[in-house]
Amino acid sequence: MSKYYSDFMIEITKDEIFEGLLGYGMFAEKIPPIFTSEPLYDYCIANGFSWLNKEAHSAISYESMRNISIPRVLSIPYPTTYINQCKFISDNWDDVQLHFLDKTGSNTYKKSQIHIRKIQAKKQLFEMNYKDFDSKYGLLETKISIGAKYVVKADISNCFPSIYTHAISWALAGIEEAKRNQKDSSKWYNQLDFYTRALKDNETHGVLIGPHSSNLISEIILVAIDNELQQYNYTRCVDDYTCFVSSQQKAENFLIDLANALRKYDLLLNHKKTEILKLPLSSVDSWVTTLKSFVIPKEIGVTFLRRYLDTAIDLANKSSNIAVLNFVIKTLSTKNFKQMALEYYINTIHNLVLLFPYLLPIIDDAVFIPLKIDSHKIKEIANDIYEDGNRYNRFETMSYAIFYAIKYNFQLRDDLFDKVKLKEDCVFMLLSYLHDIKFLRGIKEQYKDIAKEIQNDYLSKDKFWLFIFELLPREDIKDTCLRTLKGRSGKNACKKVSFIKQIH
Q: Is 394 exposed, middle or buried (0-12, 13-18, 19+ CB in 10 A)?
């Protein structure tokens, strides 16, 4: 049995895959951390699934800035369609495990590096920044690169949005059998295709980015492609390939074979991000080596800090990769600062988050909390963040500003509702509501009126389901499944679900 299978699958039970995906994998990490699906999981365990239907629904969209300063569209799935998909995966977990054993059982090493797995002391099953990834990945690459003279870097063009849901069946059953039985709804692989399509209003192209179930779905297809490329020594981080070969010709052959294997599953190679490089190369990006060469003093002063930050900013600009700054901010989160250096650092952070919204998801945990930043300074930063977001209509930026206001208990502004009335972004609208009912009187009913208007719009209601669900009382919600999740009293009483968690 391959190490891949034992690492990836065997330790996860049916119950754990259901809890991990539903209770801890519904909301993407890049969305302001005020949302949770744990109560939804608890509800399902306590009350069962008999009330669920099989209707397809659209998902909520949320734009999040990437480290290359290009937004990525994340999604929050409709709760009933996500429950159905997670429950189906759990019920058929043995078959899913057998698929991975079949496609990876003969591997001499684990090609896929980022995937669903057990994470120590956590119930969630997926992390992009898995803590053991760097050391294990680097060690593996040194092993499989022995004797190689070239390395090929490649990735899949627009991977998740390009996945053809019927390719799930192709991967699980084989292309010929799956196509022969495409209309047979009794086949479990066709049912998984159906439950995946249902998350996108029955669309066959694309899986949602954000829910952890999508990472499992993509792996089902990508390990089938890996299985066709057994002759090559490569690693894969989701859809990024690093292949080691002995000649230029073999490098070109890998790209040809990879493109052909992808095409069988209706995926394409991203030629803009494909390159063949002559070895040797440094084992990590040069910016990592440069920054790790700094010896950080026990107490950081301004002189050192300026040199360290200037170097990081220069490296980020040269590499066009804002992840450099992410690395630096997380590194400094555990350090001690002299008072003047701390003021300099916070002012720099203030400027950087305005320039690079990609940094917004980390500054609470990596700056505000560990460095005990005063709420007045946080308010100053939040105000500027909001103004900048409002200027360019960046809802992610505005949403984080409102999140900080809610968490640190200060009123950001009193005109959020004017923006909410435009009905453009669900996450922003719900955060604005939570802010305004905390700081403004008499506005709750105005927000409810907006929720009722959206609920009556057949084309839009699914894309704002979270706003509708959290604002309206049970008796005003029209969707039967959402109304059921609001709980009930009397003889068959059950606790209502809320997707909003308490933050402190």
A: buried
Residues 6 or more apart whose CB falls under 8 angstroms from that of 250 comprise 150
Q: Is 356 helix (H, G, I), strand (E, B) or coil?
A: coil
Spatial CA neighbour of 321 closest among 291, 346, 347: 291
Beta bridge partners of 198: none
pLDDT per position as a tens digit, 212-235: 999 999 999 999 999 999 999 999
Rounded distance between C-alpha atoms, residue 412 and residue 435, angstroms: 8
Report whether 229 contacts 257 (CB < 8 A). Answer: yes
Helical H segments across 163-206, by residue range: 166-173, 175-180, 188-197
pLDDT score, position 1: 42
Listed in sequence order, the residues at least 6 apart from 303 whose beta carbon sits closer than 8 Å to its beta carbon are none
How far is the C-alpha of 297 from the C-alpha of 346, rounded, in Å?
A: 18
Q: Angle 38-47/79-91 helices, nearest 10 degrees?
A: 60
Cβ count within 10 A of residue 329: 22
Of 214, 210, 216, the residue nearest 116 (C-alpha)? 216
Helix (H) or strand (E) holding 244: strand 240-245
Instruction: Give the phi and the psi of residue 63 in degrees, each rounded to 5.
Output: -85, 130
Q: Using H for helix, E for strand and C for coil, what is the string for 380-417?
A: HHHHHHHHHHHHHCCHHHHHHHHHHHHHCCCCCCCCHH
Give the 3-state DSSP-derived string for 28-77, with helices as H, strands as E and coil as C: CCCCCCCECCHHHHHHHHHHCCCCCCCCCCCCEEEEEECCCCCEEEEEEC
Q: Please say whether the beta carbons of 125 and 12 come within 8 A.
A: yes
Q: What is the rounded distance in angstroms from the CA atom of residue 440 to the CA atom of residue 442?
A: 7
CB contact at 8 A, 116 and 126: yes
Residue 494 pairs in a beta bridge with 488
How confident is the prediction for the chain on average, in pLDDT?
Answer: 92
Least confident piece of the model among 4-8, 111-115, 351-355, 429-433: 4-8
List for the chain the helix, strand, coil content (%; round to 5).
Answer: 55, 10, 35
Radius of gyration in angstroms for the set of CA atoms belonging to the chain, rounded to a whole number: 24
Q: What is the pLDDT at residue 138?
A: 65
Residue 23 · residue 41 · CB < 8 Å:
yes
The single residue listed with the structure tokens 């790790």 is: 292
Q: How do strand 150-155 and strand 233-237 relate by DSSP bridges?
A: unpaired
Q: pLDDT tens, 316-341?
A: 998 888 989 999 999 999 999 999 99
Average pLDDT over residues 147-176: 96
Return d(Cα 110, Cα 234) in angstroms, integer: 9
Q: How far is Cα 133 from Cα 153, in angstroms, rounded to an integer?
A: 18
